Structures are given as C-alpha cells and as structure tokens.
Amino acid sequence: MTSPQNGFGAQEALDRKAMAAFEVVVARAGDFSHRPGQQAMAEQVAKTLCDVTLGDQDAPVRRIAVIQAGTGVGKSLAACVPAMTIALARNTRVIISTATVALQEQLVNKDLPRFIELLGDHVGQTVTVALAKGRGRYVCRTKLMRAAGGEADPHADLFDDELPTPAAPQALDAHSQQRVILQSLAKQLTPSAWNGELDSLPVPQAEVDWPSISADRSTCTGRHCADFGVCAYYQARKQLGTAQVIVANHDLLLASLGANVLPDVSNSLLILDEAHELPQVASSQFAASMDLSSLRWTDQLAKRIQKVGTELRYDSTAQAITLCRDVRQALSDVQTLVMDLWGLEALKKGAPERLPFGQLPEVLLEPLGLVSRLAQSLAGHMKSMSDMLGKQIKDAPERVQRLSSMYAALGALVPRLDGVVNTSRLMLSQPDAHTAPDAKWFAFDDERGLVRITAHASPLQAGPLLGAYLWPRVRGAVVTSATVTSCGRFDFFLSESGLARDPAVSTLEVQSPFDFQRQASLRVHRTSAEPREFEAYNTQVSQAIAQDLRSVQQGALVLFTSRAHLSQAVSALPADLREQVLVQGDVSRPEILRRHKQRVDEGKPSVIFGLQSFGQGVDLPGAYCETVMIAKLPFTPPTDPVGQARSEWLQSRGRDAFSELVVPATSIKLNQWVGRLIRTEQDQGQVICYDKRLTDTAYGQRLLQGMPGFRRV
After folding, report:
1. Burial tier of 398 (Cβ tally within 10 Å: 0-12, 13-18, 19+)
2. pLDDT tens digits, one per residue of 183-214
3. 516-712: CATH homologous superfamily?
4. pTM over 0.85
5. Contact (Cβ atoms closer than 8 angstroms) between residue 263 and residue 246
C-alpha cells in the first residue's frame, strides 16, 4: 500500500472525510459538549495520517503527532474516529496501543463500540474491533490438565521432575493445595464458564501459580498440539485476522516487533495512548536478569535432555547434559564471589549493589565470561534439539503427541536459560566512549535465612532503542497522553521516547476544558520535619492525613511513594477512620474500586490508600474522589539502580542530572496523580500535598508551573 494516488487533492478530501466523521459522532452523541481542544486534536490526527506512505517503499512519507490532551479533552474520540475513517478509506488497519489491559478493555467494551454505533452507516462499511493480549495472559490447556492431574497423561514421565521432593512437607502441602485449585480451573475451562484468560480468572490471581500454566512461545507447538482447536490463545488470535481496529498494549506492541502477532506497524496506522508509559515499558523489554541461587532448573533440564535426546537419538546428548552441570557450577561460583564481595553489607543496608558506570570488578570478568560461553553453547544444543523436534512433528504425525510433549518439556526451561544468556551478555558489555553504559546490579534477598542473589542489567535509556527498533518502522502515528509535557515542555518525553531528532515529529498541546481555578484548590501542608528525615517526616504526615480525613464526606484518594509509609499511615489511624479506609494490597484493585464506589453510593465516606498504580489510570469522577492527598512528591526512589546509573553518567559529562532527569520525570508522575481529581466539568475538589518542597524550592516552582491551574489555598 502507498499514499493516496491523486496527490494533494486526494489527501485534502480524505482529511475532510475524517473530520466529517468526527463531527457526525459529536453531533449524534448528544452528551458531548463542544470542545475546541478536541476539535483541534482531531484535525491534527487527520492531517497526520491522511497522506503517510504505507508498506515498504523507498523514502516513505512519515508523520508522527505527539499530542498532550489535558484531562476532559476526549482524546479517545479525537484520535480514534479520524484514524478509523482514514484506515477504512485506505484499506488498512488501526492499531491502538495503551498502557494496561484495563484500559484496553475499556476501549474495546465501551468507547469504540459507542463511536462505531454513532458513526452508523456514515463510513459505508462495518467496523470490527479485536482485543490483542500477549500469550502469557492465556492459559495453556495442556499445561493446566497436566498440572491438575485431571486427565491421564501418557507423557507425564517427561515432567516428573516438577514434583516437590518428599523431604519438603511444606512444599508437598503447597503442591496439594495448588493442585486442588488447578483442578477447579480445569473443570471451569469451558466457553460458558471460563474463557482461559488471566483477566477473567474465576479465583484470586494470588492463589494461582499462573506462570506454570500460562501459554508461552517456547512450549507451544501451535497447530500440532492436541489442544490447538480449543486453545484460548489461538481462539483469540482468530479475531485479529479480520478486525480493522486492533487494541493492544505497549508491552505486546514492542514484544511483537518483527514477529507475526500484530499487523506490521509499517502497513498500519498507529495510536499510542497513555504514551508517557512507553519509555518505561521499553526499558523493561530490553532489560535482563538471572538467578544465581535457585539453580534446580539446570538439574531438571539435564533430566529432560537425557530423556528427549535418547528418544531423538541426538548425537550430542551427553555433551548437552554435561553443559547443564557446568552452567550450574559456573553460576554457583559467581554467586559465591558476589556474596564475598558485597553480600553482608548489601543485606545490612537493604539495597541492591550497583556497579558504578557498569564496570564489573576484575575478579568477576572471567567467571561471568565462562557462564556466558557455557550458556550460549547449551542454548545452541537446545535449538538443535528443538529443530529436530519441529521437523519430526511435521514428518511423523503418528507420534505428534509424544513429540509435542518433548518440545514442551524442553521449552518450559528455555526462558531460564535465555535469562542467563542475555544477562551475562549485558553484564559483560562495554560501551564506547560516546554511549551510555548499561545499568548493572546485584540484588540480595533474605528468604527464611537463605540468601537469594539475582544479577540484573538494563539500558539506561529506552530512547535510543525505540529510535532503532520502533520508530523507523512507523509510517503514521498519533502519540498521546494527558501528561506528555513535563514542566510545560515536550523535550523530556521526546528524548525519553526516542523522538527528539525525528524530522517526522510534530507536537501539539491541547488544554483541558476544565476550569481548574474554579473547580479545584491546592493546599500545601507544611511539616516541621524535612522530607529527608524519613521517620519524623512520615510520622508528621501520617498524623496530618488522619486529621484531614476527618473532613472527608464522600470519596478520597491518598497516594504514597512507599509501602512502608503507607503501612505507617494505616497504623496511625484511629479505629473509626480505619473502617473508612481501603488499602492497596488487601484485596485486588478492581475489588477496592468496587467497594469504594459502593460505599460512596450509600452515602458513606470512603478513602483509598494506594501507591503509584493508583496514581494513574483510575477514573473516579464526582463524589468518588473529591480529595486527593499526596504524602510525598513522587520522585524516583533513591535506591533505584537505573536512576542512579543515569544520574551518574550525566554528572560525569558535566550535566545536571537532577534538573534534566529527576525533575521532569517527577513532573509527569505528579500530573498523573493530581489528574485523578477533576474528571468532568461538574467535579469539585481539593489536592492536599504534604511535601513543602513543592512551594519552598526552585524545582518545586517548576513542578507547580507544569501542574493544572488550581487555586492556591
């Protein structure tokens, strides 16, 4: 596909058609008030997408609109309706990517059906929508039935190493309890009861060892699996083939680049909603970790290689088994060295041990090099055996069930081996003089008297990676959020997301239609203790929160930067106030929101105590949230290894890391937090911040300038 064939006139006509569809939806909705900002955003979306080149073409026309749309603009309508109209006219598809599964489901189940209904026959054809989730959010029926013991498994001998050892009665008890839960799930796995998705799990997620039964690429034989016809994942995949609008999430979008999961972004129109989350998701995608302590998986792998290799007549079975043992010994040796270097001190301070400038101590270079070489050699054998199995699965249909079980038995342990390969490689990487080094650190956890050590490596910035792997493939995209600017500027987000030097980028800031000066106030509570005086400060804030909760008549949200401070504030509450408070972690997030709304609907005061995840993506309009309390400015924790490494590298180049990095990132988080307050034109409320740095420091003034214009109390 290419850009419209009739030049400027065709582009202008398509632009008008997209805007006409937008105006039809607004006019037919009735409850949508005229919003100049929404109109301006829709015009920018149409202008951006109508003439981009689609498909593999030389010197394609690319356009990427980065749009900050304040709360209440109605960015979903402004982005989706013009994009859908243009995609239908150009015989292509729209991929909408957002931050969370909850937001995906809101788009698929609520927003998009309404837009399509209001469009009616205006676009001249039916618009179909599909929800795309990663494999890991679907159950693998084969794994579930084997783990539950609900069906006789003729190939169970391949997996008998998964059972706990008899010497561990606690493990046996936990295993029995888990099997009962899995047997219940197996019975409910029917079209009328449970569809096999994690997000509709009929029991609390915390009670299920989900990774042990979830679908994943390394164990899946696709159409050769006996359960392929009823596979929850492939049933969902069928809908993607015919849908014109596909709603995904950032994690799946990035994970599927180059894979045949989502349509190629070079041949689709792309909407990135909640785009402020993209850099963090990308950093997680390119990070790696390996466990240096829990090494039983290497013994499991050796046993499975023995069984599978013997049946396959794999010539190098003995060599692969020896490599399993060598990898275990090499990892154990690294663990001993790391423990000797930092273990006792790290456990005492309760923080990871970060390697300055990503430089490994010389004593670790050769041991980690050995881990890397051995793991790569073992991965080569695993690939050879996987290829042999794949070929035999195709050539010997009479043995497909046994061969598929072999494939799954080996594949179940591949992610552990891949973690070792990727982490050791990143640990040993050495940047050039102009490239930022990776962040590298070791984490130490005391688990019932046993020390568990994990090695971690992560890129310092996602921007260069997104600039290399995502944006060159994109032809037309709308990148939007209510918080794309920080301290009033786009610079930080553009740098973090890899768009700073992309000539295809345009920016637009659309103001919220809300009258923040009239609708909301901001009060800063001044503690005598400084925020750095953790114990005294947290105590004073907890007392102040308890006092302010006395005036809450309906709904309130209290946000904390640490679990410890949240717990302390809960403990400080008098009994009568504690009854009004719902605490993150006590029950699931959906259940907290349900109970909160129910209480407010009954005329009772209700307060949610939450952490970062409740500071964004939560929609509590009207009485459900009339007060937002911020215990502390949401700076990145000082113990965050990636943040520390980034600051270190910037400072080494004579730059002000706090001003360039910390303050802009905090601005985006803070605006997300205060954005929970005013959700409609009728809302009234107040923000109370207990951190006096917001008014008493120069950087606090920068944060204030980037916030909505609440009246100051």
Report:
1. exposed
2. 899 899 988 899 899 888 888 877 888 988 99
3. P-loop containing nucleotide triphosphate hydrolases (3.40.50.300)
4. yes
5. yes
